[in-house]
Automatic annotation (TrEMBL):
Function field: Essential component of the vacuolar proton pump (V-ATPase), a multimeric enzyme that catalyzes the translocation of protons across the membranes. Required for assembly and activity of the V-ATPase.
Listed InterPro entries: V-ATPase_116kDa_su, V-type_ATPase_116kDa_su_euka
Keywords attached to this entry: Coiled coil, Hydrogen ion transport, Ion transport, Membrane, Transmembrane, Transmembrane helix, Transport
The organism of origin for this protein: Alligator sinensis (Chinese alligator)
Protein name: V-type proton ATPase subunit a
Similarity annotation: Belongs to the V-ATPase 116 kDa subunit family.
Membrane-topology descriptor: Multi-pass membrane protein
Primary location class: membrane
Highest classification ranks of the organism: Eukaryota, Metazoa, Chordata, Craniata, Vertebrata
Cellular component GO terms, alphabetical: plasma membrane; vacuolar proton-transporting V-type ATPase, V0 domain
Localization: Membrane
An example molecular function term from Gene Ontology annotations: ATPase binding
Length: 724
């Protein structure tokens, strides 16, 4: 990882049409090239290779369909290596295979759905016949005088001539269980109570053939008299989506129908099993190559997308592209183009021509598996301008260390370190799994970051003497209790009267004078003022490190100004910035360190408050009797620093904008001057034109912000961390 972004160059690339596909494929495998869009004014649907892109999208749709079918049924096999980019003619074979597979799978799904629908209907009919038979058998066991003359004949339980003339009809069917109550209520109201309804729950739940969800249903039978009631019942059943099945009136016919239904169900089970086996066989065959197919289709689509960014000359024989790439990788780019030419069978070598431009090149920071995580953190806040100082190398140390300052527990740091070491030592096996879990991938991509955070957390944990919120007494405390009794400061009466006792370091022997060798003395873990002391210590230490880091960042900007020869930025930006931060926050840092060094145990009770001093510094209040000065002539020093910091504010914010505005207006006036032609007397001709006044000048914008990022919006990338 370099301290500045890579030096980039803009080059025109001339390719033979037949070799363009393979050359772009090789550049894509290299992952070091960014193509500019030379067809910005052309609609996306009017570009040369839009049909090929649509074909790739159609293949992606088929692959998504196959992946959805395999979900929770078949494991997709992923290869350890990425497949090579297929040639254009291989795309036709891939289309044929995928379309045939899609058609076969859709046909199998349709057949399976139809068979399951038939199976569902036969199962419902089987339960309906069984429940109906049970109902009639129950009615047969009633006493002889239970039925009147009419009803006994209608239910076929009695055989009298009068009953035959007034025979009731009945309708049997199946309805979803949750619809049974409103169904019954509507029947009663619509038929005015002139129907007799019996229903019962089906013992086994059924499976919906479309949604594959469990469905619970009820079997019902409705007795009625008259055609009008039959029509009403039929419409109500249709409204509630109840399925009505034909049910014979005689028991013998019902038993015969049950036997026939059972036979058909057995046959359907056999056919459904065979259909499912055929479907699973198709899915297993597709699962072997699905991941490979997906990578190939993505590569093909990316290549044609890049080719749509290029120009094709009027002879339709040459593809013209403009590419950005690192200067140090020129040799690798040429070798990749040569390999693409050889693979395509072309005999005409690609031509690279350097292009002089005033466009801001893209920012490219080379990374590896260790530095990639830190670079991503920096890029998350914004990509730097071209050739600016890259803060990522410094972030490798500062980010995990500042995290550890907040975390500060050697026990939990050891757990984090162990987890990171496991990921680092098994990274090849974990990479081979190609997990799609977003949370896991986030942790794994930052494994080296977590490793350093764990190491620094152990270090700061020992500094804080904190291990799972417990202190470690490794070297022995520097504080002793016995001198407090020897000096008669403590006695039995003091012990009985006070709940908390205070060690006085001014008493000889109480404090040995030698600090704890590493970190906080363990005696502070049992002190009543533990939080007060540790919070003050950690806050001041954080302020010192925070101000140091801010000053370091401002100094880094000086190197950028010197590199780009921006004298105005040094005078009107860096100098007032460093003055402001040192006069205020640098002085705060000085007061913290001065107070630590100057006030010892004998005069610590007279130590003033730094916070009050810092507030009074801005208020110019130096008559506070409760807060004594830190040093002599403090008033003069602080007044000078505040005035100097206030002067730096307009110096930093007002002067530079006016200078930039004046330069802008001057440039505008120069562009508006008319050209001066050379006359017969030998006058000089001056023609004012815009820089890069060519046919592509309209698409060349000076970028600002993060590393030519505005220009990136009109360009497309062909680069990756690995093969595509």
């Amino acid at each position: 990882m370099a301290f500045r972004s890579e030096e980039m160059c803009l080059t025109q690339l001339f390719l033979q049409v037949e070799a363009a596909y393979c050359c772009v494929a090789e550049l894509g495998e290299l992952g070091l090239v960014q193509f500019r869009d030379l067809n910005m004014n052309v609609n996306s649907f009017q570009r040369k290779f839009v049909n090929e892109v649509r074909r790739c999208e159609s293949l992606e749709r088929i692959l998504r369909f196959l992946e959805n079918e395999m979900e929770n049924e078949t494991v997709i096999i992923k290869s350890e290596k990425y497949p090579e980019t297929p040639l254009p003619r291989e795309m036709i074979d891939l289309e044929t295979v995928l379309e045939k597979l899609e058609a076969e799978l859709q046909e199998a799904n349709q057949n399976q759905q139809t068979l399951k629908q038939n199976f569902l209907e036969l199962t419902e009919l089987k339960h309906l016949l069984k429940k109906t038979q049970d109902f009639f058998e129950t009615e047969t066991s009633l006493p002889d005088d239970f039925f009147s003359e009419d009803t006994s004949g209608l239910l076929e339980l009695r055989s009298t001539p009068a009953a035959a003339a007034a025979k009731l009809g009945f309708t049997a069917g199946v309805i979803k269980r949750e619809r049974m109550v409103p169904f019954e209520r509507l029947l009663w109201r619509a038929c005015r109570g002139n129907v007799y309804l019996r229903y019962t729950e089906m013992d086994t739940p059924l499976e919906d053939p479309v949604t594959r969800e469990e469905v619970k249903k009820n079997v019902f039978i409705i007795f009625y008299q008259g055609e009008q009631l039959r029509q009403k019942i039929k419409k109500i059943c249709e409204g509630f989506r109840a399925t009505v099945y034909p049910c014979p009136e005689s028991a013998t016919e019902r038993r015969e129908m049950v036997d026939g239904v059972n036979t058909r169900i057995e046959d359907l089970n056999t056919v459904i099993t065979q259909t499912e086996s055929h479907r699973q066989r198709l899915l297993h065959e597709a699962a072997v190559n699905l991941w490979t197919w997906g990578i190939k289709v993505k590569k093909i689509k990316a290549i044609y997308h890049i080719l749509n960014l290029c120009n094709i000359d009027v002879t339709q024989q040459c593809v013209i592209a403009e590419i950005w790439f690192p200067v140090v990788d020129t040799g690798r780019i040429k070798r990749a183009l040569k390999q693409g030419m050889e693979r395509s069978g072309s005999t005409i070598a690609p031509i690279l021509t350097a292009v002089q431009t005033k466009m801001s090149p893209p920012t490219f920071n080379r990374t590896n598996k260790f530095t990639a995580g830190f670079q991503n953190i920096v890029d998350a806040y914004g990509v730097g301008n071209y050739r600016e100082m890259n803060p990522a190398p410094y972030t490798i140390i500062t980010f995990p260390f500042l995290f550890a300052v907040m975390f500060g527990d050697c026990g939990h740091g050891a757990v984090m370190l162990g987890f990171a070491l496991w990921m680092v030592t098994n990274e090849k096996a974990l990479l081979a799994q190609k997990s799609t879990n977003e949370i896991w991938n986030t942790f794994f991509s930052g494994r080296y970051l977590i490793l350093l955070m764990g190491i620094f957390s152990i270090y700061t944990g020992f500094i804080y003497n904190d291990c799972f919120s417990k202190s470690l007494n490794i070297f022995g405390s520097s504080w002793h209790i016995r001198p407090m009794f020897s000096n008669s400061t403590w006695n039995e009466h003091v012990l009985e009267e006070n709940e908390a006792l205070q060690l006085d370091p001014a008493v000889p022997g109480v404090y040995s004078g030698n600090p704890y060798p590493f970190g906080i003395d363990p005696i502070w873990n049992i002190a009543k003022n533990k939080l007060t002391f540790l919070n003050s210590y950690k806050m001041k230490m954080s302020v010192v490190m925070g101000i140091t880091q801010m000053v370091f960042g401002v100094i880094l900007s000086l190197f950028n100004h010197i590199y780009f020869r921006r004298t105005i930025n040094i005078v009107l930006q860096f100098i007032p910035e460093i003055i402001f931060i040192l006069c205020l926050f640098g002085y705060l840092l000085f007061m913290i360190i001065f107070k630590w060094c100057y006030y010892n145990v004998h005069v610590s009770q007279y130590a003033p408050s730094i916070l009050i001093h810092f507030i009074n510094m801005f208020l110019f209040n130096y008559n506070d009797p409760t807060n004594s000065p830190l040093y002599t002539h403090q008033k003069e020093v602080q007044s000078f620093l505040v005035i100097f910091a206030l002067i730096a504010i307009p110096w930093m914010l007002l002067i530079k904008p006016f200078i930039l505005r004046a330069n802008h207006l001057k440039a505008q006036r120069m562009l508006q001057l008319p050209p001066i032609s050379e006359g017969p007397a030998g006058d000089t001709e001056v023609e004012i034109t815009q820089p890069n006044n060519s046919k592509k000048a309209g698409r060349e914008n000076h970028s600002s912000g993060h590393g030519g990022h505005d220009d990136h919006e009109e360009e497309n990338y062909l680069k990756s961390s690995g093969p595509w």
